[in-house]
Amino acid sequence: MSRAAVLTGIGAMVPDRMVDNDEISTLVDTNDQWIRTRTGIERRYWADPGVSTGDLAVEAGRRALESAGVDSVDLVVMATSTPDQPMPATAPRVATDLGLGNIPGYDLSAACAGFIYGLHSATGAIASGSCERVLVIGADIWSTRLDPEDRATAIIFGDGAGAAVLRAGDPEEPGAFAGFDLGSDGAHKDLAVLPAGGSRQRSRGEPLREADNYLAMRGKEIFTHAVDRMAGSSTALLERIGWHTSDLDWFVGHQANARILNTVADVMHADRERVLLHLDRVGNTSAASIPLALTDAAADGRLQPGHRVLLTSFGGGLSWGSTALLWPDVAALAPAPRT
Ligand code: COA
């Protein structure tokens, strides 16, 4: 019998400070009605000064360990594009703060697709026999990287962290990841980019431009690629594992824009009622978006043990990835206030 990676705990959190659409419209030229109708977002949470991505990750990780009922893992995989600093990685500090001892920990950068990439890495570590349990965290703070002049990014992004504990188990049991479909396309690397801090920007030999510190995004083009890649990857995965779109109880896509998710569902001939939405309350939380959405839906009972769940994600890189599982019986705490 082959070894599978099985989801056994989940947890997520957002920072305290809620920023609604009316507050965003005091910062850039926009309004609540436009943001709701064009994105589906009503509010998001931004970290206070002094709070880092690692701080959020520690809390999400603690909740996931509690949900799994364990206090040790063999590896921490931390998906983020906004680490505490470029070097060292944030994962070792997260492992230490969680009291996990001198286990390996590393960061993984795949933008908004990072959490699915993290699940893939953890699954490989478990399948190879080198790990029994792995903590996978997706966390990002983009609020400090938003161009004050750019209404496209200001309206979308929120901060947050989500985590899952995976354990070795049986491929047939609920929670076992049924397979993965991952991909990337560097030809479109400039569609979403944060230039500052990398070797390309430093080796230019020119002074840092203010704009290099901010996330630049070509929203319309990203929209089209996001639909194509999430639909294509989801379809490829379903074919590979022998599931049909009509089998799905929940379609959990990266929470960037409700119109993107509904269009993906339409392309796949999936019922829009099966699209899990969480972005209305937290915005696009990048690598945290999938575990935040899952934790929220598990906490409020939308996700039930035995449900067939497809996860699919897309982000800068370009990077995308999908996986699927039968939802297990896991405890979850709501990551954000409901009202
Ligand atoms: N508030 C008010 N009006 C706005 C606006 C805002 N925040 N942003 C754009 N507009 C205006 C534009 O000026 C334009 O007006 P015009 O028709 O008079 O020229 C109109 O609204 C449409 O603009 P457009 O850029 O075509 O909007 P859009 O429907 O593409 O929505 C995004 C913009 C950013 C919300 C959308 O493209 C998107 O979600 N893209 C994907 C982003 C993403 O997923 N990022 C995460 C991965 S990096």
UniProtKB/TrEMBL annotation:
Residues annotated as the enzyme's active site: 112, 254, 284
Record keywords: Acyltransferase, Cytoplasm, Fatty acid biosynthesis, Fatty acid metabolism, Lipid biosynthesis, Lipid metabolism, Multifunctional enzyme, Transferase
Compartment(s) of residence: Cytoplasm
Beta-ketoacyl-[acyl-carrier-protein] synthase III C-terminal domain span: 238-327
Gene3D superfamilies named among the record's database cross-references: 3.40.47.10
EC number: 2.3.1.180
Family matches, as InterPro entries: ACP_syn_III_C, ACP_syn_III_N, FabH, Thiolase-like
One Pfam family cited in the UniProt record for this chain: ACP_syn_III
Pathways involved: Lipid metabolism; fatty acid biosynthesis
Keyword Lipid biosynthesis belongs to the record: yes
Record field: catalytic activity: 3-methylbutanoyl-CoA + malonyl-[ACP] + H(+) = 5-methyl-3-oxohexanoyl-[ACP] + CO2 + CoA; (2S)-2-methylbutanoyl-CoA + malonyl-[ACP] + H(+) = (4S)-4-methyl-3-oxohexanoyl-[ACP] + CO2 + CoA; malonyl-[ACP] + acetyl-CoA + H(+) = 3-oxobutanoyl-[ACP] + CO2 + CoA; 2-methylpropanoyl-CoA + malonyl-[ACP] + H(+) = 4-methyl-3-oxopentanoyl-[ACP] + CO2 + CoA
One Gene Ontology CC term in the entry: cytoplasm
Subunit structure: Homodimer.
Function noted in UniProt: Catalyzes the condensation reaction of fatty acid synthesis by the addition to an acyl acceptor of two carbons from malonyl-ACP. Catalyzes the first condensation reaction which initiates fatty acid synthesis and may therefore play a role in governing the total rate of fatty acid production. Possesses both acetoacetyl-ACP synthase and acetyl transacylase activities. Its substrate specificity determines the biosynthesis of branched-chain and/or straight-chain of fatty acids.
Protein's name according to its UniProt entry: Beta-ketoacyl-[acyl-carrier-protein] synthase III
